[in-house]
Write a structure and sequence with these properties.
It contains five helices and seven strands. By secondary structure, the protein is an alpha+beta fold.
């Protein structure tokens, strides 16, 4: 799929709908119409501890994220290997909020089009280096058409999104 570009709110809204509601919250009607659950194909937990029962994504990109997680499962094979590579840890998916470091731009998480993996060991802002998300695991997401914000010297190695980014055009 051709994803909208993150710098263009009009493109984001045209593709995913306008999530903006009142008083700093997502529009409940938009959430009800567009945000769907994905049960991960392996056990995941939030970086701060609780198990993940499901992740929330926009209906247009849920399958791409589900396929990416299945590719991670195929890559590592066992839950123990997934855990050893910390691909079982998430900072979450759908979160209606501002982009970190901005007082005006909304995070791609606000359109339910992103996930953070192992944020504790893949800090923002930081350029990817060995010890962060394994490159072969990140490739699983890219294989499924998702954009990794740790590629090409970018500074958000935990973040995968269904939205184009500047380094890709």
């Amino acid at each position: 799929m051709n994803w909208p570009h993150e710098s263009n709110t009009g493109e984001l809204d045209a593709c995913f709908g306008n999530p903006h509601g009142a008083n700093g919250h997502a529009n409940p009607a938009w959430v009800s119409e567009n945000v769907v659950a994905l049960i991960p194909p392996y056990e995941m937990k939030f970086s701060w501890g609780p198990k993940v029962g499901h992740l929330l994504f926009h209906r247009k990109c849920r399958d791409a994220f589900g396929e990416a997680l299945l590719e991670v499962k195929k890559l590592y094979g066992t839950q123990a290997d997934i855990d050893a590579h910390r691909m079982n840890l998430t900072g979450g998916s759908f979160m209606y909020r501002l982009m970190r470091g901005s007082s005006t731009r909304m995070s791609i998480h606000s359109w339910a089009a992103a996930i953070d993996i192992d944020p504790q060991h893949n800090p923002f802002p930081a350029k990817w280096r060995p010890g962060f998300i394994p490159a072969e695991a990140a490739a699983c997401f890219e294989k499924c058409g998702l954009i990794w914000r740790g590629a090409h010297g970018d500074d958000d190695p935990m973040h995968f999104q269904a939205v184009e980014h500047s380094y890709r055009g």
